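Researcher: Please predict.
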Amino acid sequence: MSKIHTPKTARTALATAALIVLAACGGGGGGGSDDGGSDAAPQSFATGRISGFGSIIVNGVRFDDSQATVVDDDGVAHDRGELGLGMVVEVEGGAVQNQAGTASKIVMRSEIKGPVEAVDAAAGAVTVLGQHVLVGSQTAFEGVTGGLAGLQVGDTVEVHAFFDAKAGVYTATRIEAESGNGHFKLRGAVSGLDTAARTFRIGDALIDYSQVDAGRLPALADGARVRVKLQTAPVGGAWVATKIDTGAREVAEHAETEAEGYVSDFASLASFRVNGLEVDASGASVKFEDGTAADVANGVRVQIGTQTVFEDGSAADLQAGARLEVEGRLVANGTLLEATKIGFEDRDEDGGHGGGGQGGGGQDDGPDDHED
């Protein structure tokens, strides 16, 4: 995997996660493919949560996604209307100027897909597929009425999150209801590896990898981070793996690279990881700042009040298909945004993003951009 060399790093520790922004040396980058219809190699790379729409906003950069190829972490193509706020994504694109760029490829990368096994609303936590997941004001919900309180044991959900390897917990940025899944999925650190029994654990989940061809296995060891596809029913108390890989990303050196997530595997400034991405910051000055952030789900209801400020339009201009940039405060278990400012933007060709909105009268259920 290519390392990222940085003349400067940056910034910010969220209330529940660390955010680091890296600007890589060199020019137009290399490695990877540009699937956005251009022969130019991607010049920028960003990984983090989607925190706004009107295009997509990742790590404070607004990427025009109108021509982007969208795939999941298996390389399966998706419509860009499936992108939702709080999703953790990787973005390749052109040069970033004035906090704006053009995305050529977007990869959606969730951490867990599986059954809810326990809900602790008082503690703000849920157990999914044997994993302890923290849920808070920064967690967006899709298809779950009432947020955390609406989750039931036995529900199948997909969780976008940042993994804290030191604490062994996930901080959820988005939880969405799933149905009709052909498989479950889990990313995490291996523990309790038993090569004789061909089992290991990720969190509290016991994984049986006896059905995976030995020639297709990555190097397994306690502490190794892997991505596992699983059958949807346990056998003898263990989840049966159908595929195991490292989930490692091949990231070349780009003019700009930004990554959001927990720092892990820190050996020195020349060797550590951010959300699984290997970083070499030996030529950089590294700065962390404290801050908070919150996100909303694509399709979340937006509440408009007497204090809401409109820019380039008014409440009378709200209609289906309108492109909006919304700032406000996330309330009601991550399903309602109290708008402080709504700005109108030009529509894109296909009318913007979808996402299964939960609209109500007089409310805009389109893409939202939230800032504290």
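Model: Confidence is low (pLDDT under 50) at residues 1-38, 286-299, 347-372.
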